[in-house]
Specification:
Strand content: 15-25%
Helix content: 25-40%
Distance between the termini: 66 Å
CATH topology of the largest domain: CBS-domain
Number of helices: 9
Shape: flat
Structural class: alpha+beta
CATH superfamily of the largest domain: CBS-domain
CATH architecture of the largest domain: Roll
Order of helices and strands: HHHEEHEEHEHEEHEEHHEEE
Oligomer: single chain
Number of domains: 3
CATH class of the largest domain: Alpha Beta
Largest sheet: 5 strands, antiparallel
């Protein structure tokens, strides 16, 4: 058969798209085929697949659980609120009245700069309205609501009206485009290990085992995994939750940032000094 008579990939792709894929699986196959033919890059494919998955993912799958929420009690004095905000390093905090089921509103961290100028401090006067959503809401619907309302955080409630957790617009977007680094994240590969103000070390989960061993004088093997994140996943056998603590090889790892798909940042206590050893991580 004359090769010129065979339909090219573009013609076949166009033909499939013009008659519309019969289902989502066929659409994904077309997209993967386009990627394999270098018609789109890996990032574009990931974003499209993430957007398709968002319509099938519920809020409960990506939310920060109730027990791991950083909250402020409305009766807390200013000298207790400020350390909480600095330690958590979030831009928004749910404010509760004694119980996490009783969310009064949302405090923006930037408002603390103006609150400090008030002689008569009343936290209730600075609260923004809280948005409440059900656990069953789909991420694509929530993202649309976030865009329309310009809210960045929502409180997730269960079928009984109790608080189940919270979700932010960043949590939703990261399910589509991957990790979004904010002003509290650190820079590129040279900053994978950084001493925190608390005296502990912030370590990116993608830090290679070899670099980690050199910094902390450990001897973790890299035969089964290449990164610190892989070490944690191998030890637990599952995806860890935010603020979860894991002890491995004499080091204590706290999960600082993670979502339902990926581990991002760890907080590590300084290694205990050994007799005759003076080296510490750079």
């Amino acid at each position: 058969m004359d090769s010129d008579s065979k339909p090219g990939f573009i013609e076949r792709l166009t033909s499939l798209l013009l008659r519309e894929p019969e289902d989502r699986e066929q659409l994904v196959q077309i997209l993967h085929s386009a990627y394999e033919r270098n018609l789109m890059d890996a990032d574009a494919l990931t974003i499209i697949e993430g957007a398709l998955q968002a319509s099938e993912t519920r809020v409960t799958d990506v939310m920060i659980p109730r027990a791991q929420m950083d909250v402020i009690d409305v009766d807390n004095p200013m000298d207790e609120i400020v350390p909480i905000v600095i330690e958590a390093a979030h831009s928004r905090f749910p404010v509760v009245d004694g119980d996490r089921d009783n969310v009064l509103g949302i405090l923006l961290a930037k408002d603390l700069l103006r609150i400090h100028t008030e002689e008569e401090f009343n936290l209730r006067d600075w609260l923004r309205p809280a948005v409440f959503i059900p656990e069953s809401k789909r991420l694509n619907v929530l993202l649309r609501e976030f865009r329309v309302s310009r809210n960045h955080m929502a409180i997730v409630v269960n079928e009984y009206g109790g608080v189940a957790g919270l979700v932010t617009i960043e949590d939703v977007l990261e399910q589509i485009v991957g990790d979004i680094e904010d002003e509290y994240d650190f820079d590129e590969a040279h900053d994978n290990i950084r001493l925190d103000a608390s005296g502990r070390y912030r370590v990116k989960a993608r830090t290679e085992i070899e670099d980690f061993n050199a910094a902390f004088s450990t001897k973790f093997s890299d035969e089964e995994f290449d990164t610190v994140g892989g070490l944690i996943l191998r030890h637990l056998g599952r995806m860890p939750k935010r603020n979860e603590v894991v002890d491995i090889g004499g080091l204590r790892f706290q999960v600082l940032r993670a979502d339902s798909r990926r581990l991002y940042t760890l907080l590590i206590d300084p290694p205990k000094p050994q007799t005759g050893a003076e080296d510490t991580p750079a």
